[in-house]
Amino acid sequence: MTRVGEVTFTRPYWHCDTCGRGQFTDALAERMPSGQASWAVKSAVARLSVHLPFAQAVAEVQQLLGLTVSARSAEGWTEEIGAAYTPATPTPTEPGPAVDTVFVEVDAVQVPFRDGWHEEKVLVAWGRIGEQEQRVHYAVGEGPWEAQVSAIAAVARRAGSRLAGEVVCLADGATPIWPVLTRLWPEARQLLDWYHLQEHLAQVAALLPEGAAWHAAQREALAERGPGETLRALAQVARRGPTREARDTARKCFAYMAKHRHRLDYSAARARGYPIGSGRIESSCKQVVAARCKGAGMRWNHPHAQAVLWARCALLNGDWERAVEQARKKAA
Questions:
Q1: Can you tell me the distance from the alpha carbon of 213 to that of 209, in angstroms, rounded to the nearest whole number?
Q2: Higher pLDDT, 9 or 289
Q3: How many structural domains is the chain composed of?
């Protein structure tokens, strides 16, 4: 099956009467993929399948190309390409791209697997030269954050972390994330996601008589002058809040902020034009994982989901042809 219809090839075939085995040596046959479909067909079907459920993808192939393909074939071809994909990553000793700043953001999204819900880690990095942002690089991983060290380092190297004047790491307050990022870049600028912090402050504000005004004052102080004023305001509520619930909530928020105090220099980050919110990684979680793996009724097997998501990363990274070529060589 090719993109212009079915084509029949004939090839020499020899049979040995002594051993009962047959063989062919035609060079064209050696280049043909298994499964009776050309790599152009496999690529087209898989490219649609990283966007759509497999049954919908093959329906689109029928409409667009007039080819009849099974959903099972679409699934197999997509996984074949995703499983073979390896991004072009500089080694730890190679310089990689020359950029001024590299931004690294990581987060996790829950995916429905057949054995329950599990986290899929999403890793994003991009460089900046002056005020010009470079291509965003995507990667995914499964398992604990400690298992993602190599993948995070690799996606950052692709963005130019080795030559960057500064590495900026941004994530939410999940405890396992920060030791990994600190181990990779001890001198990096670390920023706690602004919006996650605001959610904690909003919980305190909701228990105060003038909560809206109090919260607005804390946002301004954090954005312009650092965490000191807000920590003092929380300490005051923790001591003299109107209710026990307000005092307890303020204590928890104070502890949360104190733990991440060195990650709250939003004024300096804003002065340099750095992002302080996790909009990029939140969008990436939806774009890379949720849009494909969290459809109605979907339940995934772990290796299948990982292969499909890596195929999706190949497309988003601008590496689709590279991934297809890697799959072709692997199958040869």
A1: 9
A2: 289
A3: 3
